[in-house]
Amino acid sequence: MLSCREETELMSQRLDRPLSSGERLGLWFHLLFCKGCRATQKHFAFLRTATRAWREHHDVDSIPR
Ligand SMILES: [Zn+2]
């Protein structure tokens, strides 16, 4: 089982690249038992949604006319 620090690192990397099935399984398993990392994951999920929304909005606005 990975440490909380490593799990958080994986959650961060998941924003930039797809995780391997082993990594996803490790993360899922860790989250079952670790309340702290579940809270962290919620934060990352929010961050991902917010970043995507911002990018879409920004791209629309930055199209040259
Ligand atoms: Zn943890």
UniProtKB/TrEMBL annotation:
Residues 4-38 form the Putative zinc-finger domain. InterPro entries: Znf_put. This is Putative zinc-finger domain-containing protein.
